[in-house]
Amino acid sequence: MNHESLTPGTRFGRLRVQKELAKDKNGKRRYLCLCDCGKETAVLENNLNKGHTKSCGCLKRQDLVGMRFGRLTVIALSDKRAPRGKRSVPLWECRCDCGNITYKATDILKNTEVSMCSDCAPLYAAKKMRENAGYVGGTQLSRIQNTKPDSNNASGIRGVYYDPRSGKYRARLRFQKKLLNLGSYENLEDAVKARKEAENRYFGEFLDSIAKQGT
């Protein structure tokens, strides 16, 4: 049964008919339609007439513009798409905290482990590795809490060494990439005391600041 083609400009929901396209493989009429969001899409005539298709898909899509995910803020829905198996999904244009523009699908945006630009991703991965290794503020907590002396330390006290050239005990402390020399002492007890005082000062202040950040 023959019937007239849909008139260009006819509206169906958010869609406006632009022109008739070649029929699909089953011989069904198709039309190129312009959605109110600005995207063009091909729709079967039957789906238009029965109200099955009322937009390019944007009616079902959450508007993420202005929302923040991880290091990204969504600017707009772009015309770019990414493959997802046999289909494709739209990409959102986003601005990263570093200033870079990047394009992400909704599922990627909502995963805070990867919601950032490609420049920030390796920096974030390195940070997570350090956190997992017990690093806080650039310092590995397990190291400052370790009191075991180095294998070449004959004094038996971590950070206290006997200097055979001077015949004295030397105390030192390595903290946040700095080696602090705490002086030379005639006897072991004074060197140990200097080391302990330095630990209380530097390690104690650091651990106190970490504890306050967690409260």
Explain how this protein is built.
The protein has 215 residues and is α+β, with helices and mostly antiparallel strands. The protein folds into 3 domains: 1-60, no CATH class; 68-129, no CATH class; 135-213, GCC-box Binding Domain (2-Layer Sandwich), CATH 3.30.730. It is built from 5 helices and 13 strands. The strands form 4 sheets. It has a 4-stranded antiparallel β-sheet. A 4-stranded antiparallel β-sheet has the order 5-6-7-8. A 3-stranded antiparallel β-sheet has the order 11-12-13, covered by helices on one side. A hairpin with a 2-residue loop joins strand 12 (168-175) and strand 13. It is rod-shaped. The relative contact order is 0.07. The model is unreliable at 138-142 and 210-215 (pLDDT under 50).
Short description:
The protein starts with 10 loop residues before the first strand and ends with a helix. The chain is an alpha+beta fold and 215 residues long.
- The string of secondary-structure elements, in order, is EEEEHEEEEHHEEHEEEH
Top-tier CATH class of the largest domain: Alpha Beta
CATH architecture of the largest domain, by name, is 2-Layer Sandwich
Bulk shape: rod-shaped
Major β-sheet strand ordering: 1-2-3-4
Which SSEs are present, and which pair or pack?
Layout: E1 11-12, E2 15-21, E3 30-35, E4 40-44, H1 45-49, E5 68-69, E6 72-84, E7 87-96, E8 101-104, H2 106-109, H3 120-132, E9 135-136, E10 139-140, H4 141-144, E11 160-163, E12 168-175, E13 178-185, H5 188-213
Antiparallel strand pairs: 1-2, 2-3, 3-4, 5-6, 6-7, 7-8, 9-10, 11-12, 12-13
